[in-house]
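FAQ
Q: What does a multi-component entry look like?
A: The components come first, one per line:
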Amino acid sequence: MIFAGIDVGGKNVHIVITKDGTILAKVEGPTGINKAEAAEKLYEEALKKAGLKRGDISRVVATGSSGSRVAFADGVIPDAAADARGVIKLIPSARTIIDVGAEEGRAIKIGPEGRVLDFAINERCAAGTGTFVDTMSRALEVSVEEMAKLSLQSTRSIPMNAQCAVFGESEVVSLIHQKTPKHDIARAVHDAIAGRVSSVARIVGLEKDVVMIGGVAKNTGFTESLKRDIGMDVNVPDDPEFVSALGAATAAATGVLEEKVEAKVVEKEMIEEGKS
Amino acid sequence: MVEAKKVEYWRWPEASWVNPDIDWQKGKLVTVGVDVGSVSSQAVIMVDGQLYAYSNTRTGSDSPDSAWKCVNMALKDSNLKVDNVDYCIGTGYGRVNVPMAQQAITEIACHARGANFLYGPEIRTVLDMGGQDCKAIRCDERGKVTKFMMNDKCAAGTGRGMEVFADLIRVPVWEIGSRSFQIEKEPPMISSTCVVFAKTEVVGLLQEGVPENDIMAAYCAAMAHRITELLNRLGMEEKFAITGGIAKNEGVVKRLEKELGVKAADKVWYDPNMRDKGLPFDTQIAGGIGAALFAFAMLERGKAQSARKA
Amino acid sequence: MLANYGFKDGSGNWFLEIDSDKCNGCGKCVEACPAKALEVGEDEYDPFREESVAKVKAEERKKLRYSCAPCKPGYGENPTPCVAACEPGAISHADGWELLYGQK
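Then the predicted structure of the entire assembly, as C-alpha cells:
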C-alpha cells in the first residue's frame, strides 16, 4: 500500500510518498500565503513524480505548523510525533531530536520505541530559526551555503551581542564596517543561533544519539557550531528537511491518524517504556 | 550604522531650545544630562534644577560623537560652555562613553525621574519606548523606581520595530499615526509577534490589496497589544505617562489607551510656569531631564564634587 | 524595588525578578547559578542606595531565557538553584516560562 506524508511548515511544504517503507517521491515547495493551495499543488506534483494518481494513495497524514490546512488529509499529527516517527525509522539509536526549521525550533526526547517522552519548543521568534540564518546571510551578502563554508574556516569565536534577527542584522553590518573578517562573522552567526537552539535542547536533556533534522540541519556551519556547543556528536540523516514528512507518512502507514504528545513524561512511565 | 538612504523614513526631526527667562550666570549649579540612544540623542541643561536648554538630535556615528552633537546643539543659542557645567551625567544606550559626563546612570532611573518632572508627582507608571528598547516602570511620587520590566532584546515593541515597518511600506514614521486612523473599520491586528515574520505578513497583505492605511492600523494595533501585555504584567497604577519617541505616534498611543482602559497623561507640562510660557514639551527628553536632575541632587547632597572649570 | 531582568520577545515573557528590598547581597544565588549569570554589585536603579544587591550581569540580560532554560524554571515542583539558595526569598522567575515546555 502507498501512503503520503505532508509537512506544511512556515516557509516550505515537504511531501513524501512511501510504499513498503521506501520513498517513491519527495517534493519541496514554498508554503506561500495560501497554505491549502500550496499543499494541493505540491501534492499533485509529488503524485506526478511518482507516476501515481490520487486514488493510488491509501492514506494521507499531515503535520507541520499548518498541517491542519491540508483539506485532503485523512489525519493530522503534531510535529513532535512526526519527527519522532521519522527519526526512529532512520536512526533507531536516536534519543534526542533537534528540529530547526524556518520558523520554529524544537527539541524532543524519545524512548527506544520512538515514543515522545518530553519536548520543548522555540516559536514565534526568528532568532532561533532558519530565518535568522537567512537574514544574516543577506547582511553578509552571501548565500546560506557560502556562509556555512566561510564559518568552517574561522578559528576564533566572537560573541554576538544581539539576540534578535533585526538587531543582529545591524550588528553584522557594523562588524563588516569594522573590517571583521567575513569568516569570523559567519561563525559568530552560527555560534549565536547554536547557543539558542542548544538551550532548548538542554531542557529535554542531551542524550545520545543526538539527531538533527529540519532545513537548518543541512547547514554545516550550524551543525559544527552546535557540536562545539553541546560537546557531543550530531547525526544528520540524508534529506533532513523531509524527515518530518516521512514521519507523517509512517504514521499513515501504521494507521495512526491522530496522536497526542505529552511533555514531562514521568520516570515511572519511562521505566515501563524500557520493559516493553 | 546603516547606509545613507535617499529618503529616511524613520527619523524624527531635530530640535533645540533655550529658556529665555533664565540667566545661567545668576544660578548656582549648572547640571547636564546627556541621553545617548540608539536612534536619537538628547542633551538637557538645568540651572538649579530648572530647565534651561535642551536638544533632540539624531545619534551620530558613535557615542562620543553623538554626545558632542547634542550638547553643542543645546548650547548653540547660549553663551554657556561645557567648562561652566558643575556636573554631567550620561544615560541611555551609550552612557558609558559620554566624554563630558562624570557619571553614568541607567535610563530606567532617569526616565522615571524625567517623567516625574515632565508630567508631575501623580505619575506612578511610565512607559518609555526608545529606538531599541521598551521599558515599563513603576515609580513613587518622587520619581524613584519601585518596579521595572524592560525589553531590549527583541525588536518588536521597540522603535526599531516601527522603523522596519515604515521602511517596508515606504511611509515616514511621523505620518503613520495619523494615517492609521484614516480607515473605515479597525482591521484585525498583525498576528506575528516577531518583526521579521510580521514583515512577511505585511507583504502578504499588500499583495492581497489591503489598503496601506489599514495595514498601518493593524501594525499599530499589534504594537499597542504587545505593550498592553507588558504593562499588565508589570501591574499598572495611575497616573500613567508615556515618554520617548513612541509618545509621538498617536496610532499606537490611542490604541494602547483603548486596550488598557487607561488614558495616558496629556502631553503638557505639569509645572504651570512652563505651561503658561508655552515651553515646548518633548517626550524624548525625559531621560536627559532625569539625568540632569540626578546630577543636581548628587551635588546638593554632597555625593558628588563640582567639575566646573570656569 | 522589583527589578525584572530579561526580556519579552515574540515567543513569550522571560523575566527573572530580584526584590532589592529583600535582597541582603549575600551572593548565594551567584554561586548556585550554573550559567554564571548573576553577580552582586551596586544598585543601578537607585543611585543613592549604598548597599549591594544581586543582579543579572549586563551581558546576560538579553539572553536570560537561553541561560535560564536548562534549569527549567516553572517546569515542576523543584525550584531552580538560585531560588533554592535564596533565604530571604528575593529572587524568583516570573511566570510565563511554561511556554517552553511541550505544547505541541
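Q: Is there any commentary attached?
A: Sometimes. For this entry: Chain B touches chain C through 33 residues (CB under 8 Å).
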